[in-house]
């Protein structure tokens, strides 16, 4: 019988759903089908996402160290591979190419717990007959503008600031384009779609745009209307959105790594950009149903 390689309360990196690395810890052991299993909990996630891994099957599923250690080792491995390739020159042997061709796993954002809470509470509000009052007080455009102002003041940026600033601006611009492109079809909950379609209809009528059905309505720049809650919905599935752009895993990881500071900035300013009891209005459709039910 295999002996456990990890102890209770020990932190490590686990591959959630077989592909996404997440920091986790062992909170116990239990027998399943006569075999000992680790009981693991992902850092920042509720017990709903708890998982089990058989003792003896740690390889490829459980890696010792924190997420920071894992990211550093991945970065060092890529740099070492590039260094070997440049010093040794190209090689066609299967053995020498195996390490370079091995796929690099995608490392998602290190999600601050407070931002996960925003997503959960916002989901609850929307499904309790509320919607966001648009435009939000702090739109995605405004949030990004304030982050760039903040980023320019960071001391570690001053040495080679232009290079870092250009990278951040480029990645934020990409996020903004993606946000505007996918909000209508992928980021709105069902109760929000009717209100957003009404907004599009009003805009079309004001601009005398003819349309036959809702799908023909021209989009509005979502980044000028929506704020933190919807931006976080995009980031929740950001790695997959980047894969849809046909980017390789190394580029995806580099992009996410460059935006982690933006994520941390959102956490620090969470109360400024979003509050559970502010910025929501009752859904008009719900008001109409209530009035109708009361014979009004």
TrEMBL record:
Instruction: Supply the Pfam families for this chain.
Output: MRG
Q: Where is the composition biased (Polar residues)?
A: 82-94
Domain of life per record: Eukaryota
Subcellular location(s) of the protein = Nucleus
| Residue ranges of domain MRG in the record | 109-276
Q: Which GO terms describe its cellular component?
A: NuA4 histone acetyltransferase complex; nucleus
BP GO annotations? chromatin organization; regulation of DNA-templated transcription
Name the predominant localization: nucleus
Record's keyword terms, sorted: Chromatin regulator, Nucleus, Transcription, Transcription regulation
- Entry-linked InterPro entries: Chromo-like_dom_sf, MRG, MRG_C_sf, MRG_dom
Keyword Nucleus (UniProt): yes
Q: Where is this region: Disordered?
A: 74-94
Name of the featured protein: MRG domain-containing protein
What species does this protein belong to?
Answer: Caenorhabditis nigoni
């Amino acid at each position: 019988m295999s002996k456990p390689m990890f102890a209770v309360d020990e932190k490590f990196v686990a591959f959630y759903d077989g592909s996404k690395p997440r920091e986790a810890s062992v909170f116990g052991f239990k027998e399943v089908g006569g075999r000992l299993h680790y009981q693991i909990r992902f850092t920042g996630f509720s017990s709903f996402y708890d998982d089990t891994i058989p003792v003896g099957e740690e390889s490829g599923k459980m890696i010792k160290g924190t997420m920071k250690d894992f990211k550093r080792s991945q970065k060092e491995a890529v740099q070492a591979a590039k260094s070997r390739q440049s010093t040794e020159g190209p090689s066609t042997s299967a053995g020498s190419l195996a390490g370079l061709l091995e796929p690099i796993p995608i490392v998602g954002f290190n999600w601050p717990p407070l931002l996960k809470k925003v997503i959960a509470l916002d989901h609850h509000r929307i499904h309790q007959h509320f919607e966001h009052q648009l435009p939000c007080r702090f739109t995605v455009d405004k949030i990004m503008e304030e982050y760039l102002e903040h980023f320019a003041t960071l001391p570690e940026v001053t040495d080679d600031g232009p290079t870092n600033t250009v990278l951040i601006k480029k990645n934020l611009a990409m996020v903004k384009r993606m946000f505007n492109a996918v909000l209508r079809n992928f980021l709105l909950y069902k109760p929000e779609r009717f209100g957003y379609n009404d907004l599009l209809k009003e805009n079309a009528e004001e601009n005398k745009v003819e349309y036959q059905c809702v799908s023909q309505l021209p989009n509005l720049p979502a980044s000028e209307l929506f704020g933190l809650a919807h931006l976080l919905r995009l980031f929740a599935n950001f790695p997959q959105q980047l894969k849809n752009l046909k980017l390789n895993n190394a580029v995806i990881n580099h992009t996410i790594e460059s935006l982690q500071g933006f994520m941390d900035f959102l956490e620090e300013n969470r109360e400024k950009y979003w509050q559970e009891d502010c910025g929501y209005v009752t859904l008009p459709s719900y008001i109409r149903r209530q009035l109708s039910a009361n014979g009004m």
